[in-house]
Amino acid sequence: MKTINLLILLGVLLLLLSCNNEKENTESVEAKNEVAKWTLDLTEANISVDDIEFYELGKKDVKLKKAVPGIAQSAPNYISYIAAPMDGIVSALYLNEGERVKKGQVIMEIESLEYGNLLSEFLKSSSEYEYQQGRLDRNNKLLEKGITSQSDMEMIQADFELSKANFVAVKTRLMTLGLDSYEIENLKNSENIEPHLMVRARISGVIDQHYAELGMPVKAYDRLASIVDPTQLLIKGYLSPEDLNFVAAGDSVVINRQSDNTVGAIISTIASINPALDENSRSLIANIYVEGNGSWPLPGENLRLEIYSETPENLLAVPVSAISWLGEDAILYVFADENTLEIRKVEIASSDDTYSFISSGVSEGELVAISEIFTLKSLVRYNEFAE
Predict the structure, then answer these.
(1) For residues 362 and 344, is the Cβ–Cβ distance under 8 A?
(2) What is the pTM of this model?
(3) How far is CA 298 from CA 238, 331, 346, in A?
């Protein structure tokens, strides 16, 4: 009985040892296959490293180019909307759409009963102020001679201050309507005052649109016209949120028409980038300012922008010709020795027409193949089928 048990125990031990050896052999074969899969032996191929051009990875002065759409708009402070200062009727139009205008030039008149009442109030307050000023001066002299009492003088001073405050308030209201001090002073001496309010241009430029026609009634703050100064434009470039990893204020920009390359490109820089997504386009907006020449770009024109950014410190630039694809994996062929290339999976952070920018998978100083890529990929496929 003991002999039988001993034999059974020896059989179990031999079986366990056999399974363990098979497992080790299997792992060894898999490891060898994995190594063979990610290296390329050139000794059996009709190609050598001398036939391949290599590129050394390093921190080279390479600009990342990003092509994005854009649109031209009038720059802030270079577009002006003219609003009606008060209720009235458009009684005269002096300039038509498309005509040039200078800052302060009258572009239309509004006949307004409200303006007429304000003029009447101004003349009354002006007369009252002048009367109280003269009264104050006369009583100051009488006070010095002891004819006017101090209490009377205080009442006169209070009347003067009240008339002054009323006059200044009415004058300020006239100035908010666009009248300057010279015009306001002339109102005092004018014998024929008409309730026609002059509407003036706030900037120099071109009349873009009229929103009110002759004889049309308008209310205070209704839009009357718009003026555009085409000498300064704002170009808005539309970026994806991922572009913020590479694009920054100060990057250079080449601006072209969307479909016409016959017009010379404009070179500028990104002035700023809005921190939040635009509600309409769901994009980040890069703001670029350019000088306009009146012919291009025009406000509202669609443009093509090429943004050139510095390569981030954590990325390595490699020519696009070096990239090969195995399924969804981007790979590079890295020099190992005179007979062997390593096949490396890499992560591409961004690409343009010339370079791909690698975030992981290779290191600075390594040599990657940039020629014979099709041949190398064919060898990889052949080896896969041979296995």
Answers:
(1) yes
(2) 0.65
(3) 18, 45, 44
